[in-house]
Structures are given as structure tokens and as C-alpha cells.
Input
Amino acid sequence: MKKNLLGMNLQFFAAQNFPETNLQTQTSLGNFVEKSVDYSYRFADDLTGFLDALGITRQFSVQEGFKIKQYGKPEVDLKDGNVPEGDIIPLSKVTPKEVSEKEIILKKYRKATSAEAIQRFGLDQAVNITDEALVKEIQKGVRDSLFGTIQAGQATPNLNDTNGLQGALATAWGALNTVFEDDAVRVVAFANPMDVAQALADKEITLETQFGLNYYTSATGTVVFSTTQVAIGSIYATAPENLQLAFIPANGEAGRAFGLTADSTGFMGMKHFLHDESATQQTLIMSGILIFPERVDGVVKVPLINLEG
Output
């Protein structure tokens, strides 16, 4: 018998089978995809509930870099409609008054969970805690953007003094029905939690929650959102018909290129993946959402003056 001069265990190589036992396959890591689907669906569901509470019905998808134009009250040059038979009808002209322009961009977020954190708390626990916090901050960014556009677009600062929150809501209703005089408008208002708390102190009103905000519907049908983004002592209000949502679909070209998981709305795309070089489990999120008032003169600011104090 010839001696194995290299000292190798040839039997070991001959008996080895592939794939190896305990190989981490796509099936065993499938919970990553399920996790992405779950968060994308919940984000879209929460945002849809928020839009319903706001009363927003106009939504449209746009491309990266799309310019959003905001307008004031259009100027109308209405010609005399008393035109003799057979005469040329004079042209009336409507000129939109452009006030500002905003660009909608696709925002990208990435988070990494270390091997040490996974080892200490477990995969699901470590990733879920940080994912939850990340998504809540993204939601907050959408809300802050809305309040920023609402307050920046305010064009009616000198309304009559009012008697507390209820008086301010009544004044806002009257002002908005003047701005949108040809439409029967509803009102959605934003107030500081301290002002809301005082107004609710002696009333049996149930607060509801959507997209991280508390709100209630007053007896007049006005939906009042509570937010610290509005300073104590005043409210901002507009008509739901004046609010629009523009978004860059996360299930579009960029989402497909990077393998993002999104629901049918495309409001947010998410992906979980392993990064071996840093021994981290990473989360990638893309979303581009802008809620804005189409007419800036359709936003009113009303002071809360307590005449009893």
C-alpha cells in the first residue's frame, strides 16, 4: 500500500456533502423580509389614518426633485357677461398668484445593530427596539414638516380677539368661510396641548390618536390636533380641502433597485440586511412625503385671549 505522503485525510474530503449542515438560507433569514413588510405596512396604515383624520383626499405621486408651488388667492378679471346676440364673448382671465415653491426630496435613513447588541438582547428584541424608534422619528419628521408649512404659510395674523380655544375655533371657522366663500368648508385646527387641556378640563371629550398625535372633534365638527409645534396662546387652522399630500413612491425605481419592501401605497420602503464587514444587522429606509396647504391665504392664525382673566 502506498503511503499518503501529504498526510491529508482523503476520506474527509470524499465524504463532505453540500450544502453544509446549518447553512443560513434565505428561508431561515426570511423574517428580515417579514419585518420590513410589517413596518412598511404599519407606517402606511398610520399615515393613512392621519390623512383620514385631517380630511385630506388629494394625494399624488411625484418624481425626485419635483417642485411644489403654493398659491395665494387667484386674481380674477371677470368680463361683462351681458353679450349681445352674435357678438364675440370677451375673455375673462384667472391668474394664479404664486407665493412660494418647495422641492420634495427622497429621504434616506440607515441604522445598524451591532453583533454585541444582538448577542445580549436577541435578534428580534435588539432590532425591533431600534427600528421602532427610527420609524417614530421619521413620522415626527413628516408631522414637523406639515406644521412648518402651515405656520410659514400663515397669511391672516390679525383676527379679532377671542375667548379661549372655543372662541378661537369659532373665529377660525368664520375666517375660513370668508376665504373660501364659494365652498362649504370644514375646519381642521392645530393647538398647543396646554391650551387643549384647559379647554377639555370641564368637558367629556375623548381624545383619539393617529400618527403620534392626539386629536378630538368639537361639537361644531372642527377637528383639533394637539401639538407642541404650535406655541401656547394661538391656533392655526385651515380647510382639509386646502391640504394635499405629495410623495415619492418608495416602490418606484430606487426602491426596486435597492430591494426595498413597501406596501401598495409606497409611502415608505424598508430593507433589512447583514453587513459582514462591521458585524451588524442594518436597516435601510427611504421615504419622501410632503403635506402642504395649496393656498397660503387659506391658513389662519387666531390668538387665544381669555377675556375672563
The longest helix spans residues 123-152.
